[in-house]
Amino acid sequence: MHPSQPWQDLPGRIDFSDSDRRDYLQLQRYHYRLRPPATWNRVRVARYIAPGFAGPGRLVACAVLSYPVPMLGARLRMFGLRGHRYGVALRFANKHFMTVSRIVVHPQFRTVGLASELVRQLIDGAPTRFVEASAAMARFSRFLERAGMTRFADPEPADSIARPSYFVFDRFPADPIPSPEPLENP
Question: Which end of the chain has fewer beta carbons closer than 10 Å to its terminal beta carbon, N or C?
Fold first, then answer.
């Protein structure tokens, strides 16, 4: 837990735990994308427990860690994978990446740091070197950067409204970036 989080000043408390897609589906209507993620690896939730309440609490936020999309354009550009075959990009993504695919916070609990905390928890539990996120709404919120992710400027300028922002957390930033391994022919 990081010191002085705004959610720590709420009356009552916030409990964080692993969950499943059913909790995400309860909050899905508050996300700008109405479809659920295509894949699911881990779901973390935040529940608000009011003072004197003796129950599981009110579901107020949810974050989903997913398996990576094989041909994410920003990753292909940032990690030098353009021009490689689909199988090479797929193997590279599956070996080195997990994706924060959804973060949703109930409107009554926004701006208190729950999104950043949930992203930090997903990063801490990810089994890969890199955790990435591609967010169309990132220009309105800096929670991914507050969680420790780095926003990468796209080397190919485009309309900033049309192209989502790309974020990466590197667990071993001092190590060289792995190079894609070509598929071996039998």
Answer: C
Here the CATH number for the domain that contains residue 134 is 3.40.630.30
CB 32 within 8 A of CB 132: no
Contact 111, 6 (CB under 8 A): yes
Segments of 72-164 assigned E as strands: 97-105, 130-135, 150-152
Blockwise average pLDDT, block size 10, the chain, 186 residues: 70 93 94 89 96 88 95 88 87 95 94 94 96 80 91 65 83 89 53
| 116 within some domain | yes
Burial of 6 (0-12, 13-18, 19+ CB in 10 A): exposed
Range of the domain at 26: 6-170
Identify the CA nearest to 154 among candidates 72, 88, 66, 46.
Answer: 72
Q: How far are the Cα atoms of 22, 56, 135 from residue 169, in angstroms, in the given order?
A: 27, 31, 14
Q: Is the pTM of this model over 0.85?
A: yes
- Identify whether 123 is part of a domain: yes
